[in-house]
Specification:
Blueprint: H1 3-39, H2 43-46, E1 52-57, H3 62-69, E2 76-82, H4 88-97, E3 100-103, H5 106-109, E4 115-121, E5 129-134, H6 139-149, E6 154-158, E7 162-164, H7 168-178, E8 185-189, E9 194-198, H8 199-204, E10 229-231, H9 235-259, H10 262-284, H11 291-304
Parallel strand pairs: 1-2, 1-6, 2-5
Antiparallel strand pairs: 3-4, 4-5, 6-9, 7-10, 8-9
Helix pairs in contact: 1-7, 9-10
């Protein structure tokens, strides 16, 4: 076999292996999605053994809180970690709107704890909401405080601008139930640094940190290709895109005037247009309706994540 033939075979394998992996993942994601659709009416009863505590640090928007509370899964709670000292009025509005009352807690009563108070709703309608008032120390310390008061075994930390797809928790429960062995963590979205953690595994690994996903307990962290979360606020991204388009047009005109050669300017303009198209495509797939595009984008992030060291950080 000549060198050129050998290189052709190697390149073909490098192209076919990712395509095969992507196809298998798409089939698995499709099956999970079909199972969810076919059984969503009785989903809570069939897979209700799995409980999930969603944790969000620094969320004060009442509309966003209500959206996260609208999850129909039975074994689900939302833990809000806030700092009343930095935004007292917003915290008062949350307490008043959801009829929260202060409750006794071993975490809040501990002298070494940074937790000032723990609130739960006096109304049954909002019983799944937990408010944790803590000193604004660090993101990871706040997450660790939330783990101590969580009611369920699985922890889903999300950023302030992140929302859940309909039936997202049911999809997570199906994935956990379908796993061959106990799952310590699921990778959900690399672009948003979103993971589902088992609470006991987090405690055994020493708590949350930016390098928690590199702990030995999470060495074989499987990836869930079904879209679970999406970015809620994309206005900033659209503004950046429009600004880049204007800059690209200006640069293109300047290149024509500078080089005096339309071919060179055309090539550079084609390159800039390709980059802008990718940016626009990325912004468009952030819309919650484009589930197939989001799945493809998640897979793309999984590929490029091999070339840099990921950190666990929530925006």
């Amino acid at each position: 076999m000549s060198t050129s033939e050998f290189l052709t075979v190697v390149i073909s394998l490098l192209l076919l292996i990712p395509i095969l992996r992507f196809t298998l993942r798409r089939i698995a994601a499709y099956r999970q999605h079909r199972v969810l659709i076919d059984h969503r009416a009785g989903c809570c009863e069939q897979i209700g053994f799995m409980g999930c505590s969603t944790v969000c640090v620094g969320l004060y928007s009442l509309s966003h809180i209500q959206e996260l509370l609208s999850v129909e899964y039975s074994r689900y709670e939302l833990i809000l970690v806030v700092d009343a000292a930095s935004d007292a009025e917003a915290v008062r509005q949350i307490i008043s709107h959801y009829k929260l009352v202060r409750v006794n807690s071993a975490v809040a009563d501990s002298a070494a704890s940074e937790v000032r108070a723990l609130y739960r709703s006096s109304r049954r309608t909002f019983r799944r909401l937990v408010l944790l008032d803590v000193s604004n120390i660090s993101l990871y310390d706040n997450l660790n405080q939330a783990v101590e008061v969580a009611s369920y075994d699985y922890i889903l930390p999300i950023g302030r601008s992140v929302s859940l797809y309909p039936y997202a928790i049911e999809a997570l429960a199906i994935a956990v139930a379908a796993a061959d062995s106990p799952v310590r963590a699921f990778r959900l979205d690399d672009s948003l640094s979103c993971y589902l953690f088992h609470r006991d595994s987090v405690v055994l690994s020493g708590g949350f940190s930016e390098h928690i996903i590199y702990q030995p307990l999470f060495a074989s962290c499987p990836t869930l290709d079904t879209p679970i979360v999406f970015e809620r606020n994309t206005r900033c991204a659209y503004l950046i895109t429009n600004t880049l388009i204007i800059i690209a047009i200006a640069v293109y005109v300047c290149l024509i005037a500078l080089f005096g050669n339309w071919r060179i300017a055309l090539y550079i303009g084609w390159f800039l247009g390709s980059v802008l198209s990718l940016i626009i495509y990325y912004n468009e797939v952030l819309n919650r309706g484009n589930r197939s595009k989001i799945t493809l984008l998640c897979y793309f992030f999984h590929i490029i994540s091999f070339f840099y060291r990921r950190k666990f950080y929530l925006s």
